[in-house]
From TrEMBL:
This is Autotransporter outer membrane beta-barrel domain-containing protein. InterPro entries: Zinc_finger_SWIM, ZSWIM3_N. Pfam families: ZSWIM3_N (PF21599). It comes from Plakobranchus ocellatus. PANTHER family: SWIM-TYPE DOMAIN-CONTAINING PROTEIN. Residues 12-121 form the ZSWIM3 N-terminal domain.
Length: 155
């Protein structure tokens, strides 16, 4: 007999009654896999302002009408500069892993509409086999200050 799928598992087509239940499941997924995602989305407040009929408004518990999560290494780096400041560090290495969660009025839930789970890079651990990868990309990136401001630095 096949095992029943875990409640609120992160799989394509999974549904969630509210954003908090999705957030909990997604946090567990990220801890289990070890990958880090960035997010971008449209809030239900923003979407509801454009909908005149209050009966069609999204529930506030959804928090987002649509939200996309992408691996922090998603996409390819494309320089937009003129080459004056060379050797800029980027986390983009061509990974395609992403997830899109959308609010569905008919089902009255949040649903995972797109889920690409294949990463094009190894799991980044602090120690272990992919440590060299960590040292090159993450270690150097963390050594660079977030801003170029020198406030508070003692030289």
């Amino acid at each position: 007999m096949a095992a029943a799928p875990a409640e609120h598992a992160i799989v394509l087509g999974a549904t969630f009654p509210d954003y908090l239940s999705f957030e909990k499941a997604f946090h567990e997924y990220c801890e289990k896999t070890g990958y880090v995602f960035s997010k971008d989305g449209k809030t239900v407040e923003s979407a509801n302002r454009k909908i005149r009929n209050p009966a069609l408004h999204f529930k506030p518990e959804f928090r987002y009408q649509v939200i996309t999560f992408q691996c922090k290494h998603f996409g390819d780096y494309a320089s937009k500069g003129k080459g004056i400041r060379k050797f800029q560090i980027s986390n983009k290495i061509g990974c395609k892993a992403s997830l899109r969660l959308s609010a569905d009025r008919q089902k009255n839930c949040l649903e995972i509409r797109h889920f690409e789970d294949e990463h094009s890079h190894p799991f980044v651990t602090e120690f272990g086999e992919p440590f060299f990868f960590t040292l090159c990309l993450v270690g150097l990136y963390n050594c660079v200050p977030v801003s170029r401001s020198c406030k508070g630095w003692q030289l």
